[in-house]
């Protein structure tokens, strides 16, 4: 809440932390119900749609000539108080990419158990794409939709690789990886060989800062013009940039008990924010107000509108409900449609834009009453 809101509250002594001295702070439990009463009086407010990118302070300035009253928008609208100000349309995708950064794989296969009767694709399991080569870690399961949420960004393979080096007369050598997916790690575990013999004394290996761990430098190597040198290095290998699995390919892991591959076939694959959140059935009911009966229940608005065309006192009523699907067939019930995470977020964000605002003619008076009650 804004400082304007709190500056009219009483001050009490609060202790923040067990060992801290009490300090004066606004009374956090202060609450007045004036605006709750105003909400019931339609003559005091009007409906408003927040424009994309519009801020509370700029809206207050435009409606009331000053930015002091932006706190009234939150007090008048419970959703804003609970969820915050709506996001500008052009920023939604960026926010979703941060909040939902993973991949979602949908399958018709049963991934809840394998041949050992243990959870198969359990959370924490590292899985591999048989064709794409993509590697990921299962972080969430949704068997009712046949979905696995897989982290492909932070999952890496580890490899031990032998690299040939050519130190100079000072015993110094360097090497750089050329694949952006690869990086060195744990140089203390590396081993250096001269003519096949392990070198243990004085050799120093460092990964220079600011080089994305793609370069190593080695010094104090005993130099000999006729010798050959190799370094056994520890390397992390990430995924290709797209991090995608492919539709139709198998995703598998190796069962540590049986040694067999446990796999499923990818039916659908997408970014997490574009994955199905649920399936929804919307029905349009042509309703006769005179007889208080349904005329027609349809899955399209056009059918319902046509049904009430010859009635004097009728309307179309819209209802929506979540419906289940069979995850093993992925067949969607008649009249149902998928709603993605992005669509659901955008719909809620648009609902946040529909608010009630105090009319300009009353905002000063109501704010003064509000401040007075807060002080008392």
Question: In brief, what are we looking at here?
Answer:
Helix content is 20%, strand content 34%.
Please give a structural write-up.
There is one protein chain. This protein has 376 residues and is of the alpha+beta class. Helices cover 20% and strands 34% of the residues. Mean pLDDT is 89; it is low at 25-30.
Q: Indicate the mean pLDDT.
A: 89
What share of residues are in beta strands?
25-35%
Number of helices: 9
Question: How much helix, percentage-wise, in residues?
Answer: 10-25%
Number of strands: 23
Strand order, main sheet: write it out: 17-16-5-6-7-4-18
The major sheet is characterized as: 7 strands, antiparallel
> How far apart lie the N and C ends?
19 Å
Specify Rg, calculated over alpha carbons. 32 Å
For the structure shown, list the relevant keywords.
376 residues; alpha+beta; Immunoglobulin-like; 4 domains; 7-stranded antiparallel beta sheet; 5-stranded antiparallel beta sheet; 9 helices; 20% helix; flat
Task: Describe the protein's topology.
Layout: H1 3-6, E1 11-14, E2 23-26, H2 34-38, E3 45-49, H3 56-64, H4 71-76, H5 78-83, H6 89-99, E4 103-106, E5 126-129, E6 135-142, E7 147-151, E8 157-165, E9 173-176, E10 182-184, E11 191-194, E12 197-199, E13 204-206, E14 215-219, E15 229-237, E16 250-254, E17 261-265, E18 268-271, E19 276-288, E20 293-298, H7 301-307, E21 314-323, E22 336-340, H8 341-352, E23 354-358, H9 360-375
Antiparallel strand pairs: 1-2, 3-23, 4-7, 4-18, 5-6, 5-16, 6-7, 8-15, 9-14, 10-15, 11-12, 11-15, 13-14, 16-17, 19-20, 19-21, 19-22
């Amino acid at each position: 809440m804004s400082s304007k809101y709190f500056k009219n509250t009483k001050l009490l002594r609060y202790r923040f932390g067990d060992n801290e001295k009490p300090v004066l702070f606004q009374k956090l439990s202060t609450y007045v119900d004036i605006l709750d009463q105003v909400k019931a009086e339609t003559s005091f407010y009007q409906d408003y749609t927040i424009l994309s990118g519009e801020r509370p302070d700029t809206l207050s300035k435009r409606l009331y000539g000053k930015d002091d009253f932006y706190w009234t928008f939150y007090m008048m609208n419970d959703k804003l108080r609970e969820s915050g100000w709506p996001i500008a349309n052009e920023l939604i995708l960026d926010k979703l990419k941060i909040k939902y950064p993973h991949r979602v794989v949908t399958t018709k296969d049963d991934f809840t158990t394998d041949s050992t009767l243990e959870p198969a694709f359990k959370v924490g399991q590292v899985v591999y794409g048989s064709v794409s080569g993509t590697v990921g870690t299962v972080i969430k399961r949704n068997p009712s939709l046949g979905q696995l949420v897989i982290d492909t960004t932070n999952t890496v393979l580890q490899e031990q690789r032998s690299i040939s080096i050519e130190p100079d007369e000072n015993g110094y050598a360097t090497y750089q990886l050329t694949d952006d997916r690869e990086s060195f790690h744990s140089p203390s575990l590396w081993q250096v060989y001269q003519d096949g013999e392990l070198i243990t004394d004085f050799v120093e290996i460092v990964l220079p800062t600011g080089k994305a761990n793609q370069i190593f430098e080695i010094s104090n190597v005993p130099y000999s013009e006729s010798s050959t040198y190799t370094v056994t290095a520890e390397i992390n290998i990430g995924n290709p940039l797209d991090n995608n699995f492919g539709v139709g390919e198998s995703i598998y892991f190796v069962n540590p008990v049986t040694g067999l591959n446990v796999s499923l076939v990818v039916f659908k694959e997408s970014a997490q924010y574009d994955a199905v959140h649920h399936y929804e059935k919307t029905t349009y009911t042509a309703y006769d107000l005179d007889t208080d009966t349904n005329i027609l229940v349809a899955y399209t608005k056009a059918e319902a509108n046509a049904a009430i065309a010859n009635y004097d006192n009728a309307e179309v009523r819209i209802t929506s409900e979540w419906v289940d699907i069979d995850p093993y067939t992925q067949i969607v019930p008649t009249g149902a449609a998928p709603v993605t995470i992005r669509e659901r977020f955008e719909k809620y964000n648009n609902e946040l834009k529909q608010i009630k605002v105090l009319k300009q003619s009353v905002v000063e008076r109501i704010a003064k009453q509000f401040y007075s009650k807060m002080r008392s």
